[in-house]
Specification:
Helix content is 64%, strand content 0%. The chain contains ten helices and no strands.
Length: 225
């Protein structure tokens, strides 16, 4: 009889393993059976911790968030613009660390209240800068949704930073689109240099928030470019 002590199975271990399997097979290939096989347990054992796959995805999204905030402590002296830039850059970086990371994150519900620490800090910073609570929510959620949407499209082309899906060769696209010269030329602006495009788009979002609510650098905040 083996005397090897098995590592206890808990929610964090399952979520950690699920993120590892996610990077190997993607969201479509992620199954409780595949995760159980990696853990060397029977699939029904996972149901003690997660009632279904969505509950597991919620925990996976929460674990991604935990890792993200652990690498990005709060900085009280940030302006609201600096906070939006840092938080959305950090979110993009975190999601790009996992195959289909944006899909896992989008629509998932955080477990626990860790996210409320960051949210409370953010809303307080915004309201102290002159935003109403409703405006603060709209500004932060708009930038968040921009980042989620951007990364979803980015990962549709590059599932991981060092991969590129078949069908996104720019020379071939230009050849197929030869009768539509502007559309052909736009390919390199759409499907390449994602880092630069993300920054330009985030700048547009911040400029829109400043213009819409009149809370730019002229009212005591320093805009970061």
């Amino acid at each position: 009889m083996s005397t090897e002590r098995r590592i206890p199975l808990d929610r964090k271990r399952v979520a950690d393993t699920a993120l590892k399997v996610l990077n190997e097979v993607g969201l479509d290939g992620l199954s409780l059976r595949a995760i159980a096989r990696e853990l060397d347990v029977k699939a029904p054992a996972l149901y003690w911790h997660f009632k279904d796959k969505q509950a597991l995805l919620d925990e996976m999204a929460t674990e991604i968030y935990r890792r993200m905030v652990a690498d990005a402590p709060l900085t009280p002296e940030d302006t609201w613009q600096e906070l939006l830039l840092k938080s959305n850059r950090g979110l993009r970086s975190a999601l790009l660390g996992y195959r289909d990371g944006a899909k896992v994150f989008s629509g998932s519900r955080f477990t626990g209240t860790l996210h409320a620490v960051q949210m409370e800090h953010t809303l307080r910073l915004f309201t102290e800068a002159g935003f109403t609570l409703a405006q603060a929510v709209r500004a932060t959620s708009t930038s968040y949704l921009y980042t989620i949407g951007f990364v979803s499209e980015e990962q549709g082309v590059q599932p991981l930073p060092d991969e590129r899906r078949e069908g996104y060769d720019m020379d071939e696209r230009a050849r197929v689109m030869a009768d539509f010269p502007l559309t052909a030329a736009a390919g390199t602006e759409i499907f390449q240099d994602y880092g630069r495009h993300f920054e330009e788009g985030l700048d547009l979002v911040l400029a829109g928030i400043e213009a819409r609510y009149g809370l730019g650098a002229e009212k005591g905040s320093r805009t970061v470019r």
